[in-house]
From TrEMBL:
It comes from Pendulispora albinea. This is ATP-binding domain-containing protein. ATP binds at G268, S269, A270, G271, S272, G273, K274, T275. GO terms for molecular function: ATP binding. It comes from the Bacteria. SUPFAM superfamilies: P-loop containing nucleoside triphosphate hydrolases. The keyword ATP-binding applies. Residues 215-238 are annotated as: Disordered. Residues 247-633 form the UvrD-like helicase ATP-binding domain. InterPro entries: DNA_helicase_UvrD/REP, P-loop_NTPase, UvrD-like_ATP-bd, UvrD-like_helicase_C.
Length: 819
């Protein structure tokens, strides 16, 4: 594009940059270039009309030629084909110059000046291609044009060698700049000479170089707060949660050393050490009572696989080896083959969201208990009716009633079949009755079953069989609860989320699945279950048959359970887990209501600890929430609190260290943001080989687009993490926010923090909060469209003051206690 005509910016001063010669030169060049492009696009608009007209004529002529070919003599064919070929290329060329496809208000975002074989040419990178040979303008599509590779892969001053259009080219990158054009106006230029931005008042300024760079945290030797190790939480390169017994504060220590029995609920904002405390508590208990709290009789449950790996090193570092760490699905699926040998092994991956929500809903927990309560009542009546026919039958009824159904508290005369407040016990009524029938057990006043007349005995045996079958038929109960339209209506009565239409959809899905299961296969569909069926089946098992047993067949009884990120487990899953604990219920729950992640159409509302515990029928000791935000800097913590807005925690978190400001970078297109990110990441990879940055989008599809762009730009060690498969290696993990729950990274870049991705809804605020608080040291927000008002508002608050060091009540004593 060396032939671009010069414009009048030549000797003009750039307001705000009068004293900055380099900045003036760079900005002037870009203003001039934009003016030239806009000129060409403007005149291109009329040229477009003639181009379009030209294309129409070409099309008509091509049709004529095709008809000629059909009737032509063989010797005329080569000439006709040549004409067709020529017209075809002319037509394609006209198409490229059509300015209508390029957004004149934002035609490009990158500018390359190349020198090849002594010749200079300018190439612009944009979202759509546009070539206008008359004015020398070439805009190439960032995703496709081979030349855009040079833009993404090389820096200013680099020599390059590439194969473009099948021919080798080599040259040098004379200039490589990112530009932001908003509404036809140049508003930012990023170049190796600096980043220059134009304010609303038309004045330009040079941006602080520090804020536009990523950097990892390094303790400064001269800074005593850092030299004592408080802020250098990890060894360089170690990306796992560390054991920090010597650094625990007073509130954390108090939680860790609570007596073993009973349920403790740890609350606190993101990064306040909830996971750390739960794990150190396990180590403390194992040290305090090794007999009772054996490693294999404790379990840690986290919401996803990545967190399993992230926390795996803490307990071994504290000298406790062998405590299983699992997720609910992983743990539960190991039990299924033993408990339900006939259950299909396949899981649906296309379950409709409304079905998932219904199966996960707290109402399902109540539905199970109501169902089982009614079943038991019905069986009681059945026993009474059969026994009426036999003179001393009432004695059997009395003896029968003196025992209890599964899960019903022995001491409670109300016979609470919800099984809420007592340990799950094996079913007694059916077992006792069967033992009496077999002559293995006496029932007070019922006599010896073996001496009964054969007819009576036969009737009672049939009854015993029926009781046994019905009372233990977990899969039948599961089917009935989900496939009876009446029961579904009853279960969700009063729930605003499930109207008749939604319940019809749930019903239809469940009935179809039950049919396929019954028939093995139907219309090519294989028998499968939903992931959400697993806790329903396990809960039914507990209520109908007693404690769950492991793959070896022995009942599972946990001496201690630590359930992390409680807000992400369904009440059903929690209920199943809580009933794995032994009678004294030594359980630690940790969670944060602000980190509950719901889909946009999920109206379950805010997570509420009290409501949850009431739903589970549990009493818990809830201590003061942890208040110190250890993970993140004051800048990130304040921003994250702002993001929550009306959902922020009551107490403002206390922060312990400062860091770079949270930054928002806005771009006019995704391609432009990718170019900016690629530069920043390449620089970081060069400066800090240990850096591990998470690039976190709200939705997986957004992560895909950015990942592909960064790959094309040859950013080293860039990975797409879609299934929690973090490698914990230095590099750049492009992912979505759900994958990152509970994890931490030195730097986080929140992708597409636009108004569309993060509207002012509670769901979006919580998701943004989770993403932002994954960052320990530096946080950037990137938006390729209008930024989210949640982000811009949160950026307005100045970071909170740091806590005075001693004020945290840091306790060195914990290191002794935790062994
Ligand atoms: N007393 C402490 N002193 C220094 N660092 C601490 C302290 N307690 C926790 N940390 C560090 O703070 C970070 C966050 O801890 P942790 O992951 O346990 O928090 P969390 O509350 O579970 O976070 P989230 O809610 O995001 O899951 C970790 O790096 C941990 O090592």
């Amino acid at each position: 594009m060396s032939s671009i005509p010069a414009r009048s910016f030549e000797n003009e001063a750039i307001p705000g940059l009068e004293e900055d010669e380099v900045a003036t030169r760079v900005v002037r060049e870009e203003l001039k270039l934009l003016a030239t492009v806009q000129d060409a696009l403007g005149s291109g608009a009329s040229a477009n009309m003639s181009a379009l007209r030209g294309r129409e004529l070409d099309d008509a002529r091509l049709l004529e030629l095709r008809e000629d070919v059909a009737v032509a003599k063989p010797e005329d064919l080569p000439a006709l084909f040549e004409q067709m070929h020529h017209l075809g290329s002319l037509r394609a060329q006209r198409g490229k110059g059509v300015a209508g496809s390029v957004d004149a208000k934002n035609p490009y975002f990158g500018h390359l000046r190349l020198e090849e074989g002594g010749k200079r040419r300018d190439i612009l990178i944009g979202a759509k291609s546009y070539v206008d040979s008359s004015s020398g303008i070439k805009i190439v599509d960032w995703r496709q044009a081979p030349v855009s590779r040079i833009y993404y892969r090389y820096r200013e001053g680099d020599d390059y060698e590439e194969t473009l259009g099948g021919r080798p080219v080599e040259g040098m990158v004379l200039a490589r700049r990112g530009v932001a054009i908003s509404d036809g106006k140049l508003v930012r230029v990023s170049s190796p000479q600096g980043t220059f931005v134009c304010g609303d008042d038309g004045r330009w300024k040079r941006l602080d170089a520090f804020s536009a760079r990523l950097r990892t945290e390094r303790p400064a030797k001269s800074d005593p707060a850092q030299a004592d190790g408080k802020s250098q939480r990890h060894a360089p390169g170690d990306k796992h949660l560390p054991a920090i017994a010597s650094m625990l504060d007073a509130a954390q220590f108090e939680l860790i050393t609570r007596p073993g029995a009973g349920l403790i609920a740890i609350q606190g904002s993101a990064g306040s050490g909830k996971t750390t405390v739960g794990l150190h508590r396990i180590a403390y208990l194992a040290f305090a009572d090794p007999q009772r709290f054996r490693a294999d009789r404790m379990m840690v449950v986290v919401p996803h696989e990545a967190l399993m790996h992230f926390v795996a090193r803490v307990l071994p570092s504290l000298g406790v080896e062998g405590v299983p760490i699992s997720t609910f699905p992983r743990f539960a699926r190991r039990l299924l083959p033993e408990l339900f040998p006939k259950l299909p092994h396949h899981y649906h991956d296309d379950t409709p969201p409304v079905v998932l929500r219904a199966k996960n809903h707290p109402a399902m927990l109540r539905a199970i208990h109501t169902y089982v309560e009614r079943l038991h009542e019905e069986l009681d009546q059945r026993v009474e009716r059969t026994m009426e026919k036999w003179p001393s039958g009432h004695n059997v009824v009395t003896a029968w009633k003196a025992t209890r159904w599964t899960g019903a508290p022995a001491s409670s005369s109300s016979g609470d079949a919800r099984g809420g407040r007592d340990e799950v016990v094996p079913d007694q009524r059916v077992t006792t009755f069967a033992q009496w029938l077999a002559g293995k057990r006496a029932l007070d006043g019922a006599g010896n079953a073996s001496t009964l007349p054969a007819v009576t005995r036969g009737a009672i045996e049939r009854l015993g069989q029926e009781l046994r079958t019905r009372a233990r038929a977990v899969m039948a109960a599961w089917d009935e609860i989900l496939t009876s339209r009446e029961l579904l209506t009853e279960t969700f009565r009063g729930s605003k989320d499930f109207g008749s239409a939604q319940l019809d959809r749930v019903h239809e899905w469940c009935v179809r699945q039950a049919r396929v299961r019954a028939e093995g296969e139907r219309d090519g569909e294989t028998a499968s279950i939903d992931h959400e069926d697993v806790p329903i089946l396990l809960r039914l098992w507990q209520v109908m048959r007693g404690p769950l047993s492991g793959p070896d067949g022995s009942p599972i009884r946990m001496a201690h359970l630590f359930i992390d990120e409680v807000q992400d487990h369904s009440p059903l899953e929690l209920r199943v887990l809580l009933d794995l604990a032994t009678k004294d219920r030594s359980i630690t729950l940790a969670g944060d209501s602000a980190q509950r992640m719901l889909d946009d159409d999920d109206t379950r509302g805010e997570f509420d600890w009290k409501g949850l515990l009431a739903e589970l029928g549990m009493a818990a000791t809830t201590l003061e929430p942890l208040k110190v935000s250890y993970r993140s800097t004051a800048e990130i913590t304040t921003f994250a609190r702002g993001v929550l807005g009306p959902y922020a925690h009551e107490a403002e978190p206390i922060t312990t260290r400062r860091g770079p400001p949270v930054e928002l970078f806005t771009f006019a297109s995704v391609g432009e943001s990718v170019a900016f990110l690629a530069d920043a990441l390449k620089q970081l990879a060069q400066d800090e080989p240990y850096a591990n940055v998470a690039l976190v989008a709200r939705f997986p599809q957004q992560a895909d687009v950015i990942y592909e762009g960064l790959e094309r730009a040859e950013v080293p060690r860039v990975r797409r993490v879609a299934k929690q498969d973090f490698s914990w290696e230095p590099g750049f993990d492009v992912t979505d926010v759900r994958q990152t729950k509970g994890l931490e990274f030195d730097e986080v870049i929140l992708l597409e923090t636009t108004a569309t991705s993060y509207p002012e809804t509670s769901q979006a605020r919580h998701a943004l909060y989770v993403g932002a608080t994954r960052a320990a040291h530096q946080l950037w927000c990137i938006a390729s469209d209008k930024p989210s008002p949640v982000v811009t508002a949160a950026l307005e608050t100045a970071p909170a003051e740091l806590a005075v060091d001693g004020g945290l009540g840091n306790s060195g004593a914990a290191s002794n206690g935790a062994g």
